[in-house]
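haha ok so turns out i had the wrong file open the whole time. this is the CORRECT one, sorry everyone. sequence first:
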Amino acid sequence: MAPGDGQTVDEQFARLPRSRQRELEEKGLGLPRLREIALEEGGEPAVQHILAEHSRPSSLWDFDGDRRTDESRGAWPWMRLLLAAVIGVVLCLLSTYVLNSSALFVGVACGVVVAWAGFKTRRSLGGLVACGLVAVAYVALIWMGSYTADEWYLHLRGQETTVTYAKPLHEQASHGVRVTYCRVTLPDGTVRRVFKNDKRCTDEAMVGAKTHAVIDPSDHYRPVLGGKSAIGGTIAAYVCLGFAAVLVLTPVAAAVMSRSNERRSGRGEQGRRASGTDV
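then structure:
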């Protein structure tokens, strides 16, 4: 068996995806024939050319083009990518409760694992497109999620109640800019800064006046003046739902297609064995 790049014909043939091996056998260029060609004069370059041509996926969208021969199950790399991406997004969103918008860095750190999982998938054009869609969806989810998770939380768990305007705070910021922080008194007597100022809260004449606000029952997030419609984050939530669907459905579809290719390849091999054409 003539070596090529330090590998024998048998080793090079074994590295081909199963679908490419089947194509060679159907063309009469199975492993026995390649061995014969390699032993002929000038046969090594010919074998190298044949194997190189068939190492590429027969279809640009072929998810069966295994890049690694030790990945016997085509569906697993895609499910691993799905798990890594979902876990990364969940960890990022959960960490916003403590880190607020800085939770983005948690998502970026988890993104290293997601990138590794994506690298372990297929290298066909279809695989690259699938990995690209997952990457875009992941970045969008951790980016928007880290900045709007508090708004989503208040939409889900916030309680609308009546609060009292408290005296606002006026502080001197950098470059001589005067900043006003509005505050309200909650029903339990606690004075809290609000999430966003409104036109009335900056007027000290409104101190003691009643208004509506959405408060966090756990008192972790600041109150939002007005009803739940004033919280915001609704559009971002719908956009993130779309990206979440892409994040989940893309690797699932790739796994299904990859598994389907494996089954077709397995049935083809069984048919050749039954007819005595298997090598």
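The beta strands are 159-172, 178-185, 191-193, 210-215, 224-225.
again sry for the mixup
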